[in-house]
């Protein structure tokens, strides 16, 4: 069935699908979507990621170095991260960056980058392996482990193998897995793809999904039984980045995992605070932009 959908390749979600957008997801006791039936330790970790008050999370992605080296804005993590730490909920980073540059006193949740295998020096960056042992994830006190999937590429199977092995290891110790929908040069970036990929990741057992924002996003989130956090993507004008975050939250995302649009902003601290207002305090994009301008003065 999924094969048939993929072959259509229209880019749009089939209008005959019914996501019952007028019916909210079933109410649960626990504040993280789809996670009522996981164990206490996993819930404790998920509660460090997703605020019990807002239900949402602001992750700062600064794991770019695992593939790109010293990305613009991330040259000195030891200087940047202390400036932003108080405004974000989760460090999404490599173990190397955390151990060498980030003081553990911040006591933040950690989304630990757990894949490796390619750099931007190779033409194809879709070939990865699991890059962190579960024992080291435990040692790092990881709140979740992040694994990319490259669906629709020749590395689809091996990246899904990385995902399910990580999920199995995480389940043994109560550590959730963040399944990341990766996009590449040759890969689709449309609602049909994101809907399929996020659902596949959830069905394979990941406790949360990172996915790009797209048209029809409310259908993507409705069809995914676990929380979706949106990826930031390339640097864009600040009002556009805030607008994307706002619409994603309005359309069912439970957070934002943003890198370049925060740390490459003209004022990264004001940007982190502004995005947090949208994620946790119900600010609109316009309110958040005004807040950004005031804070950045
Ligand atoms: C993608 O999964 C990786 O984590 C990226 O390194 C990171 O998320 C990119 O963040 P951004 O696109 O917001 O700069």
Entry keywords:
41% helix; TIM Barrel; alpha/beta; globular; eight-stranded parallel β-barrel; binds ribose-5-phosphate; 14% strand; 297 residues; two-stranded antiparallel sheet
Write the layout of secondary structure elements.
Blueprint: H1 2-8, H2 40-49, E1 57-61, H3 65-68, H4 77-84, E2 90-93, H5 95-101, E3 109-113, E4 115-116, E5 129-130, H6 134-139, E6 144-149, H7 156-173, E7 177-181, H8 191-203, E8 208-211, H9 217-222, E9 228-231, H10 238-250, E10 255-258, H11 260-263, H12 268-281, H13 285-296
Parallel strand pairs: 1-2, 1-10, 2-3, 3-6, 6-7, 7-8, 8-9, 9-10
Antiparallel strand pairs: 4-5
Helix pairs in contact: 10-12, 10-13, 12-13
Short description:
The protein is of the alpha/beta class.
Distance from N terminus to C terminus (CA atoms, Å) equals 54 Å
CATH class bucket = Alpha Beta
Return residue spans where pLDDT drops below 50 for at least 5 consecutive residues.
none
Total domain count: 1
State the strand order across the main sheet.
Answer: 1-2-3-6-7-8-9-10
* Estimated helix fraction: 40-55%
| CATH topology (level 3) name | TIM Barrel
Percent of residues in beta strands? 5-15%
Coarse structural class: alpha/beta
CATH architecture: Alpha-Beta Barrel
**Main sheet properties:** 8 strands, parallel, barrel
Tell me, rounded to a whole number, the average pLDDT. 94
CATH superfamily: Aldolase class I
* Structure annotation, total helices: 13
| DSSP, total strands | 10
Radius of gyration: 18 Å
Q: What shape does the CA trace take?
A: globular
The bound ligands are:
ribose-5-phosphate
Query: What are the secondary-structure elements, in order, as H or E?
Result: HHEHHEHEEEHEHEHEHEHEHHH
């Amino acid at each position: 069935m999924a094969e048939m959908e993929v072959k259509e390749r229209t880019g749009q979600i089939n209008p005959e699908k019914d996501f019952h957008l007028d019916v909210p997801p079933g109410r649960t006791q626990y504040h993280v979507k789809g996670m009522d039936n996981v164990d206490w330790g996993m819930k404790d970790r998920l509660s460090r990621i997703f605020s019990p008050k807002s239900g949402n999370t602001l992750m700062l992605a600064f794991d770019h170095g695992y593939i790109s080296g010293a990305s613009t804005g991330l040259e000195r993590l030891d200087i940047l991260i202390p400036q932003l730490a108080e405004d974000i909920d989760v460090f999404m980073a490599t173990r190397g960056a955390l151990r060498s540059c980030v003081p553990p006193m911040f006591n933040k949740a950690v989304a630990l980058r757990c894949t490796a295998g390619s750099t931007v020096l190779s033409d194809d960056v879709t070939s990865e392996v699991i890059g962190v042992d579960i024992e080291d994830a435990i040692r790092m006190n990881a709140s979740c482990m992040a694994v990319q999937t490259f669906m629709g590429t020749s590395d689809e199977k091996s990246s899904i193998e990385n995902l399910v092995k990580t999920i199995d290891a995480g389940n043994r110790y109560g550590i959730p897995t963040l399944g990341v929908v990766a996009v590449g040069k040759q890969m689709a970036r449309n609602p049909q793809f994101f809907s399929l990929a996020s659902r596949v990741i959830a069905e394979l057992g990941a406790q949360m999904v990172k996915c790009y924002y797209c048209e029809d996003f409310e259908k993507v989130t409705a069809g995914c039984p676990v929380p979706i956090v949106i990826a930031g993507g390339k640097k864009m004008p600040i009002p556009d980045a805030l607008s994307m975050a706002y619409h994603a939250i309005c359309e069912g995302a439970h957070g934002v995992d943003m890198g370049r649009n925060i740390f490459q902003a003209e004022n990264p601290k004001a940007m982190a605070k502004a995005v947090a207002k949208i994620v946790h305090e119900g600010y609109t994009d316009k309110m958040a932009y005004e807040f950004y301008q005031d804070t950045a003065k």
